[in-house]
Amino acid sequence: MTLTLTTAGESHGPALVAIVTGLPAGLVLDRAAIDRDLGRRQEGYGRSPRQKIETDRVEVLAGLRHGRTLGTPLALVVENSDHANWEWGMNPWPPEGEAEGKGTKPVTLPRPGHADLAGSLKYGLSDARDALERASARQTAVAVAAGAVAKALLAEIGIEVEGRVTGEGLEARVDEARAERDTVGGVVEVRVRGVPPGLGSYASKEDRLDARLAAALMGIQAVKGVEIGEGFELAARRGSEAHDEIFRDERGLYRETNHAGGIEGGISNGEEIVIRAAMKPLPTLMRPLASVDLETGEPAEALVERSDVAAVEALAVVAEAAVAFELARAAREKFGGDALGDFVSAHRAYVERIDWSPR
Ligand code: EPS
Description:
By secondary structure, the protein is an alpha+beta fold. It is built from 11 helices and 17 strands.
């Protein structure tokens, strides 16, 4: 039994779509909780004025009845309200009548750092909009909805996932960058409590929980680095300062440190999972970088279009969703079950066998 997520949708197309398969039957979903995460993703300092156009809400088209999963594919939809301004430019079908609204002029000025150039070359595009629309981080809205579903499943076995921005002074950095018509990135951290030892495996590289979580985070737009536990810092330490010694008291086995970030040998070890992602500054600058007009071959300034100055706080929510989804997938593999109760019972039997409880 595994969990899968397939998404579709362009930034200014009619809607974003996700299909989640492999959920057990009987999981209660709370619409308000999903919408709350969609709202959290839209907040944050430095976001584009687009966030005022849209108030994201989830629609469910399949797999749910009266708020309970059916154990069948769950189909989620988040509409793009902004599509109303792009009806000609992003019409799935050849539009009728005069070109009108946004997206009608081909994009030929690739932004360094965006998918514009590489996407145009790869797919043979004369309008980089065909690349940038799907490459856009707008897509993360529906991934957050799927993540909220994963969090509901994880909560049934006592696992909690929480993302946050690390460091301080984001607002000042955003204000400064905005004034200079520039952009900023940042670092987010996701912590997961209640994960028993034993999710993931060293059997193959595809099974390793650290590799899977890293791939989940690297799959998010603008993420350029991932670190688990003390990650890069460990490289400079001695073994005696880098590993988490093992102790036992009346409650069982425990560690006093968590340098490893809760994963050893590609397997969760029962400690808190701690994982960080570094986001590069967004590539759409109001003071554009040097580029080349792909139509004329002449030097030019990169495309300027409405964008965020920073989306780091949004990334914290998106990263939380991505980590939750991947952990839910690992939990489905370990505990299986067609009915929610089977899944919960298998988890309970397992933690009893290994005599583990969260601290
Ligand atoms: C994005 C550019 C901006 C962001 C968008 C991601 O969109 P627009 O060009 O329409 O202003 O607002 O993010 C969202 C719409 C969202 O909901 O997160 C990009 O190029 O990645």
